[in-house]
Amino acid sequence: MTSSNRARTEIDVLISEVEQRNELRTALWRFVALFVFALSVALEPDIVNHEIHLTLLSAYAAITFLAVGLVITRLFRPWLNWIYVAVDASLVIYLTAEHLLDSASSLVDALATPSLAIAFVLLSHASMRMRAGPVAAFALIVVLGSSAVVLMPIWEDGFGAVFRLSSEETQAAGVRLVAFTVVAAIQIVLVLDIRRLVQEAVASSSERANLTRFFAPETAERLATEGANLGLRRQEAAILFVDIRGFTRLSETMPLEEIASLLTEYRRRVTQAVSGCDGVVDKFIGDGVMAVFGFPLPLATAALRAFECAVELSNFLDVWSEIRMRDGEEPLSFAIGVHYGHVIGGVIPGEHHSEYTVIGDSVNLAARLQAMCKLTDARIVISDELACKLPRHWRTPEWQTQRAATVPGRSETVDVHLLPTQASRIQSYQSQGPDRNATRPADAPRAVRPVTATVRPETRSAASGV
User: Fold this and answer.
1) 205 and 238 share a domain?
2) Per-residue pLDDT of the chain (466 residues; tens, 9 = 90+)
3) CA 141, CA 130: separation in Å to the nearest integer?
4) Are residues 260 and 128 in the same domain?
């Protein structure tokens, strides 16, 4: 409920900002009404009320300039719209009453120009505020006020005044009032539709902006398009942890600038590999990275994509380490742990900071498998649950299996599959004795050889960026 209210407040604030920016254009539209009023005053044949019209014109011009000035100086407040509506509607009613109470004018004249022309212009002006309330208020005041003016002769002279009106006058006056009412109703509907579309657009924009706080732009766009559910829920997913082995020792001897540069480049490479395998980087934890596959968007091949990412990432980072070594920098080694299981994920709200993450025993086990790399001298350790989700051909001769293995920090044993480091495999080959050629790993004589695992062609492109 808190997140929903916060999102609603953000949308209201954005809508308010849109209205503030639109208010200057709305205020400038008053000059159109002012021009129509001035034109009618300049062309009017009536000399008796000319001075009164000039006075009204001057007052309306002053109000127009004041409205623009308030917007420019940011002193405008939304409640001022109701004052503008009352002033505009009063002007239309006055012009109607002035013509109607003139014995030389007919009812048709009273409901004709300039009052009717100005009424339509000011109606459009009210509509530009994108609020149905001012439009309805303006139309209601004009219709009720004009009707009251029409009924004034009846109030004074009795119903005999009605019979003195010709049918043509009554019909023409009725048509014009009905036309104004219909146009006002259409304007109200249009304002409601436009406001709804603006709210939806702002809500969508706000949602995308909120999603980019947690996800890469491509993932955020997919979530916004396919529908994002950021509430906590249970779902199966694959979790991958990777970190730099011995980073604490390494950072103690490196200048701060080099540490920052190393972490930046390392995170960039990990993010590139994870994104290339349809994963999402959940968080950075110092030199550690946590990635999730199959959450928040379900992914049928989440386990396979996480495994492919682990293999590609291991090769990817090994090549980077070789480049560092050729440049005279200290080489790096990495540890990767992957598990597949149920997770609980979504936005976990906080007082000052909300976090989108996944939690649960599956996440803890993946982290423990990554820590297990150091104890087993392995590059990658995956759980048997993950391996059961992989195709049969995933396993290559380099992989080893440990049944009922002890995992750091857990009392229960688990079955794991691990990929030893290069040095560990060479040592294993050398310890086999004179007949080792028959069983030695194919890559043992070489200093470094990329792991041969079956992966999809598109995932291999990640290493080409080195």
Assistant:
1) no
2) 444 455 455 556 666 666 666 677 777 777 877 887 788 777 766 556 677 778 888 888 888 888 888 878 878 777 888 888 888 888 888 777 766 555 555 544 444 445 667 777 778 777 777 788 888 888 888 888 877 776 665 555 544 444 445 556 556 666 777 888 888 898 889 888 877 887 777 666 666 666 565 555 655 665 555 555 566 788 999 999 999 988 888 888 888 888 898 999 999 999 889 988 988 888 888 889 999 999 888 889 999 999 999 999 999 898 998 998 898 888 888 999 999 999 998 777 666 666 678 899 999 999 999 999 988 889 999 999 999 999 988 888 889 999 999 888 888 899 999 999 865 544 444 444 444 343 334 333 333 334 434 334 333 333 334 3
3) 19
4) no
Contact 41, 50 (CB under 8 A): yes
* 274 and 157 fall within a common domain: no
**Domain shared by 351 and 204, yes or no:** no
How far is residue 290's CA from residue 280's CA, in Å, rounded to a whole number? 9
What does the chain come to in residues? 466
Task: Give bridge partners of residue 326 from the DSSP assignment.
Answer: none
Determine contact, residues 208/145, Cβ cutoff 8 Å: no
Cα distance between residue 55 and residue 169, in whole Å: 30
Per the structure, the complete domain to which residue 355 belongs is given by: 234-465
- Same domain for 456 and 409, yes or no, is yes
Spatial contact of 282 and 358, defined as CB atoms under 8 Å apart: yes
Separation of alpha carbons 30 and 126, rounded Å = 10
Helix 115-127 with 2-43: angle, nearest 10 deg? 160
Tell how strand 400-405 and strand 414-420 pair up.
antiparallel
DSSP3 helix / strand / coil % (the chain, rounded to 5): 60, 15, 25
| Tokens standing for residue 350 | 């906080």
Q: Is the dihedral of CA 108, 49, 84, 148 positive or negative?
A: negative
pTM recorded for the entire structure: 0.52
With both helix axes pointing from N to C terminus, report the angle between 132-157 and 80-100 in degrees, rounded to the nearest 10: 30
Nearest to 374 by CA among 298, 439, 288, 316: 288
